[in-house]
Structures are given as C-alpha cells and as structure tokens.
Amino acid sequence: QVQLQESGPDLVKPSQTLSLTCTVSGASITTTYYFYNWARQPPGKGLEWMGAITTDGSIYYNPTLKSRTSISRDTFKNQFSLQLNSVTPDDTGVYYCAATIGLGITTPTPEDVWGQGTQVTVSS
Hints:
Elements: E1 3-7, E2 11-12, E3 18-25, E4 35-41, E5 48-53, E6 59-61, E7 69-74, E8 79-84, E9 93-100, E10 113-114, E11 118-122
Parallel strand pairs: 2-11
Antiparallel strand pairs: 1-3, 3-8, 4-5, 4-9, 5-6, 7-8, 9-10, 9-11
C-alpha cells in the first residue's frame, strides 16, 4: 500500500523559507512510476498545484510560483521535499504531497495517493 506523509513546521515567519518533506512508503520514488507532487489549499480557496518530480528526476513547476519554489528528492530516504522562499501570510494553508498517475492534480484517478496534509501558518 502506497502511503505519503508530510512533515515540517506549522509556523513560519514572513520572509523565511518554508521547507516540507514528504516520506513515501510502499513505493520507490525512483522506480514506481508516479509523479510526486506538491499542492496547497489556502483558507477558503481551492487546491493549487505547486510542482512535481518524476521517477527519473525531472521537475515541473507551476509558473506562478516557480521563482520561489524548489522541489528535490532524497532517494536513499525515499523522500521528496518542497522549499518555498520569501513566504508571506498569503502562503498560509494546508500543504499536501501526492503521488499521481498523471502530472498535476486536475485529472484524478483511483490510483492517486494523497498525504493527509499539514497546516502551515505564516505569521510574525
């Protein structure tokens, strides 16, 4: 069974960098062919796809966030990570990692697997 678990801080100050990690079990991020995604949901708003990394290490970003976003992976730990630089209160929301058959989150399939999400608040 594929499972994903987000981890990281729940409070970040403005201008700092948010760093989150997704731990994957039941699948190898280098050999199990998923797109490994990050998405977020601000309060009262819909999901926003942030980017993804593939099994071969290719990286895709939402153009609106690309300048502040970095996705990487640690293949030994079977983890992939998100860094969001220069955060503001508008970056507050629930952050999710997800393994999907297709790139992004707009075409869901029964095989997609989502983490439970982690609340991140940006405040001084």
